[in-house]
Amino acid sequence: MYRLLADLAIVEVSSFVASPTAGLYCAQMGAEVIRVDHKAGGLDYNRYMLTREGRSLSWENLNRAKKSLALDLQSPEGRELLVELAAKVGQCITNLPEASFLSHKAMQARRADMVSLRIMGWHDGRQAMDFTVNAATGYPLMTGPEDWDPSSAPPVNQVLPAWDFITGAYGAFALLAALHHRDRTGEGSEVRLPLGDVAIGTMANAGLLAEVLYRGGNRERLGNAIWGAFGRDFCSRDGVRFMVAALTPKQWHGLVRAFALEEAIAALEAELGVRFAEGDTPRFVHRAALFALFQQAAGAMDYQVLEARMAAEGCTYERYRTAFEAANDPVLVAGNPLFGPSPANPSGFAYPATRSFANLPGQAAGDPAPAPYLGEHSEEVLAERLGLSSGEIGRLVDAGIVALSDKDAK
Fold first, then answer.
1. What three-state secondary structure class fits 360?
2. Residue ranges of the domains in the chain?
3. Which pLDDT belongs to residue 381?
4. Of the N and C termini of the chain, which has fewer Cβ atoms inside 10 Å?
């Protein structure tokens, strides 16, 4: 953890992925993020996969470095405490519906310069999640083998909930932008961030929206090839599958030399009347012929030899790994300064944990912090942020409005 946001506190009322991600990124930069959940746990508290002790590994990793306050959010008094806390702190991240008790209007009534970030589904209020907005963008129908019949081939969903994580990252940025605006003007802001807009907006920013409108039709499936450039998976003689890419002349020339294809490429250029070093277009247009040459060369060498040649030429490549292989890879994880020693995780399971993705030379990143136990900081937050006495907190606990740490509950 860095301390760039050490003077910032944020209330987070979240579930699932996008909204907790926004809070996580702020916490990893030093913000005090107070996650508030229903006393029995939010909708994502028991999300698969669970350890033998019943702890969610997903929840544990999306809530690192945060504090946890557990309230009875089904009761008027619990909801009142949450609205009061959010207004006291002054900034809130949530994915609760705007029409809920935690509306921006309710918080703003207590604090005129309130800043809230609300992760939504669609801009018109419809519900959505990553895999449903992905279906709407058209990307799953561009994924899959290139020889599939476009009239009958099924969609292929991505495994990573990418729109959730992009939304979380954009949400953290939008929140900090709103806070910067308040610092300059004294004005609060309500920031609404629809997951669906992030998806369709990213599609537009990538140029795909303009592309399909310009061409008057859909993009074809390309299998594992890179759209608009040279890149694809190949298989070595000993059965190792790997990915290569060449987006620049230097990368292209390096690959040609690594695969020992100088003469073959020169002959193909003479046959087609093109020069592949001139840019992406000739390499992409004639990709089928190029892929055949590269696969023939790859199939004649063991991967260890080919890898050494590609490394010597400064090529852009990587071997395909399973997720389990990646988790045990000494370069990706064990020797990567992104990862620090395992903190005392609520699950009791020790494993590498991430620091901030950003690396700030000259500043100590600090070791990764653990996720909290549900309700672990209830007393602390109520006392420090709302000024409640120990007697008042005790009354709330006895009444079931506030829950304390569930460390021994599972």
1. coil
2. 9-203+343-352+370-403, 230-320
3. 98
4. C
Count of CB atoms situated within 10 Å of the CB of 120: 21
pLDDT category, 145, cuts 50, 70, 90? very high
Q: Is 164 a catalytic residue?
A: yes
Compute the distance between CA of residue 227 and CA of residue 282 in angstroms, rounded to an integer.
13
Q: Give the integer Cα–Cα distance in Å for 110 and 90.
A: 10
Does domain 9-203+343-352+370-403 fall into CATH 3.40.50.10540?
Answer: yes
Q: What is the mean pLDDT of residues 231-238?
A: 98
Residue 134, pLDDT > 90, answer yes
What pTM was estimated for this model as a whole? Answer: 0.95
Distance CA 347, CA 404 (A): 17
Question: Which pLDDT value is given to residue 278?
Answer: 94
Q: Are 170 and 139 in contact, with CB atoms under 8 Å apart?
A: no
Judge contact between 131 and 161, C-beta under 8 A.
yes
**Half-sphere exposure (CA, 13 Å, Cβ side) for 274?**
17
Fold of 230-320: formyl-coa transferase, domain 3 (3.30.1540)
Tokens of 31: 């913000």
Look at residue 1 in the predicted model and tell me its pLDDT. 82
Q: At what angle do helices 76-89 and 378-386 cross, to 10 degrees?
A: 60
- Strands (E) in 99-238, as ranges, are 115-120, 189-194, 230-235
Among the listed residues 44, 130, 164, 280, the single catalytic one is 164
| pLDDT per position as a tens digit, 308-344 | 999 999 999 999 999 999 999 999 999 999 999 999 9
Q: What is the pLDDT of residue 112?
A: 98
What does DSSP say about strands 67-71 and 91-94: parallel, antiparallel, or unpaired? unpaired
Q: Which residues of 321-335 are buried (b: 16+ CB within 10 A; e: fewer)?
A: eeeeeeeeeeeeeee
d(CA 240, CA 243): 10
Kindly give, in sequence order, each residue whose CB lies less than 8 Å from that of residue 166, ignoring residues fewer than 6 positions away: 198, 202
Residue 35, pLDDT > 90, answer yes
> What is the rounded average pLDDT for all residues in the chain?
97
Q: What residues contact 395, with CB distance under 8 A and at least 6 apart?
A: none
Q: For the chain, give the percent of residues with pLDDT over 90.
A: 99
- The pLDDT of residue 327: 97
